[in-house]
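Input sequence (158 aa), recorded before submission:
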Amino acid sequence: MAQLIHKPKQQGAALAVGLVLMTVLTTLAVTLMYNSALDTKMSTAAAVKNASVNAALGGSDEFIYRATRKDAMFGGVNPLTMNQDIAKKNLEGQKVTAEAEALNAVPTNCPHFDRSDASDSYIQCNRFEVKVDHKYGKRDQGNSQVVTSVASQIPGVN
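Predicted structure, token format:
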């Protein structure tokens, strides 16, 4: 029959080593979870910013399209043929606004025609700077702005 041997001098070293290893592993796991959550927030913010820039670019296209089509938003006229600033307008997208500033006091030569293509007295252009803003984020604190230059042809004076 086997006898049990009793060792009363155990120090508990295995328990201490086990606790230290568990503490190190727990700290490592918490750090990795924090980094993962931070990476997710950063990638989400980048995606929201890209969507905002795309909304502002689309707003610029929409503003120019609606102006040239004499939309009701502009009172049925094309404001790009007049040489005056265009007040801020709300566009279709959420929190997208656009305005245009006339860059010249009088019509000038169009940038895409040289003197051999057209006479200076026939084809003239008004030049505008179209600014489109899109607000996004918590309490609309983020803002994407797209600035586009437009040369709009108008009939010249003979």
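Checked by second reader. The two ends are 126 Å apart (CA to CA).
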